[in-house]
Structure formats: structure tokens, C-alpha cells
Specification:
16% strand; 2 domains; Alpha-Beta Plaits
């Protein structure tokens, strides 16, 4: 990697950190190419990214961002998972780490709030933005269906009363 490529990588990572809601730092020692590809696909499907980084360049990219406090975690074979959604990257990283012992979560940050391993796992247990949006839409729609049911009930009752009167008149 020449000097210009390194500079571009630092600028790209710095831009990604500026737009990101969550960063999770991991060790990936022993993961095969197929496993890394699988993890990247899962991250991408959830709207997150997973990138193997050079520690020195990543520390440079972290400067003057909300994630500057994560610099100490970049030792050894590290990779970062990041997403705008404050839950997506953590959720996929934790799920993958449970299934594959080779991926170790070192910590992360949610904005300026530094998270330890347990903090990342707690964040992963929360519902994602899409799940929360679905719940809100469901709650908004529920009263509307109840109102429709209540409005239809008197008409149904009236129809049953008229049918009963008609049946009673036919029997007499």
C-alpha cells in the first residue's frame, strides 16, 4: 500500500466514523475467508459494514471523531463493524461471535459513550430500528381496527335483531 492509498483509506474511514452511529471493535484471529465473507454478507444485509483494518491507520482515522476513545482497542488482528443504526452492527457481531469462537468482541462505542463487551451484548439484545418502527406502526393501526370493529358492531346487532323478528313473525 503506497502513501496515497493509505491517505485515502484514512479519509474513507474518517468519513465512515463521522456518519456512523455505532462502532464495534473485534478480533478475528483464525477466521477463514469463507467465514469472513459470510459475516460481511450478514452485516451488509442488516445495513452494517465489517472491515479488517490496519491498526495504525484506523487510529489516525479515529482522531477528531466521537470514537477517538476506541484507539486503545486496536492491537492485534482487529476488524470493525459499524452502522448508522445503533443496534445492527452489534446484533450481527454478537450473533456471529456466539456461533464462531474465532470472532471476539473487544468493545465498542455508541456515539461518545464507550461500551465494554457486556455493553455491546446488551445493545445487541435491543430491537433494531426497523423492528421498533414495525411495533409503532402496529400500535398505530390497532386502535383503527378496533374503531372499525366497534362501528360495525351496532349494524351487525341490528341485522341480528331484524332477522330474529323476521324468524319470529314467520313462526307465528
Amino acid at each position: 500500500m503506497d502513501r496515497n492509498q493509505k491517505k485515502q483509506l484514512v479519509e474513507q474511514l474518517h468519513g465512515a466514523f463521522a456518519e456512523t452511529g455505532l462502532v464495534v471493535v473485534t478480533h478475528y484471529m483464525g477466521l477463514t475467508v469463507a467465514e469472513m465473507t459470510d459475516l460481511r454478507r450478514k452485516m451488509s444485509a442488516a445495513g452494517a459494514s465489517f472491515k479488517v483494518t490496519k491498526n495504525r491507520l484506523t487510529r489516525l482515522a479515529l482522531k477528531d471523531t466521537a470514537y477517538d476513545t476506541l484507539s486503545d482497542l486496536f492491537k492485534g488482528p482487529t476488524a470493525i463493524a459499524y452502522s448508522k443504526d445503533p443496534v445492527a452492527a452489534a446484533k450481527i457481531a454478537v450473533e456471529y461471535a456466539k456461533a464462531n469462537e474465532k470472532l471476539k468482541i473487544l468493545g465498542g462505542a455508541l456515539g461518545t459513550k464507550v461500551l465494554g463487551v457486556e455493553g455491546v451484548k446488551a445493545l445487541a439484545a435491543l430491537p433494531s430500528l426497523d423492528e421498533l418502527r414495525a411495533k409503532i406502526v402496529g400500535m398505530v393501526q390497532t386502535p383503527a381496527t378496533r374503531i372499525a370493529g366497534v362501528l360495525q358492531a351496532p349494524a351487525g346487532q341490528l341485522a341480528r335483531v331484524l332477522k330474529a323478528k323476521a324468524d319470529q313473525g314467520a313462526a307465528a
